[in-house]
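Write out structure tokens for Phosphatidylglycerol--prolipoprotein diacylglyceryl transferase.
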Amino acid sequence: MPFWNTIYSQFDPIAFKLGPIAVHWYGLMYILALLGALYVAKWFVKKDNLGFSNQILESYFIWIEIGIILGARIGYILFYDPHVDYYLSNPWQMFNPFLDGTFVGIRGMSYHGAIVGFFLGTWLFNLKYKINVWRLLDVVAISVPVGYVFGRIGNFLNQELFGRPTEVTWGIYVDGVLRHPSQLYEAFLEGIMVFVILYMYRKFKKHDGELIALYGFFYSLGRFIAEFWREPDFQIGFVYGEWMSKGQALSVLMILASLLLYGFLIKRGKRG
């Protein structure tokens, strides 16, 4: 049997241990995602002469990272966790990394919740620094997909967010069931594809903010497509008929919001 099909039985998701703390490959990939996105942001600001200093970019990334972590975790609790009532009654438990005295890290993050936290962090940052926020969001739009590739590879290495059962030759065995490596599909559709499209489009944009609106649209489109190969969250299943997952439903809403934002920016730009 090819090594690829059984890679999970031969690969440890823990990269190394620091005493009682296990450092997972996912955590390392998350760090690479942040550093990769920040590096690409700095590179594009310099390449396209966008007028933001490295200090502003680094400060901004700290602000939005706090917003993303809070939004992702709270969003997961509200959107996906079946014990939402418990967490609302004991909100400090949302960020408790210990389970029965054992360090397990913080598990369960929602991308769509992270989006809410991201925009909240951006709004607060803009209140403090008074910048061209739409131009800055365009920098984010073209840099985040690079980081997202690392994030989805991290999901794959952490053996989570499995794909649906399949018979394709490149499937991965999970508990004896051959499944799509949907995390890698998402790395391509939501990361590489979105980056290439925005990279090519950026020279044609006429108004600041267009890239972030297009990012929302193309990311959500890629997520909607990839979810056809991804196993729905076990505690939720399908939310519409026997085919639409919660992730797809939220992606549809994000597509509509992105189109409305794009239309608003174009209309505002014509008036200006």
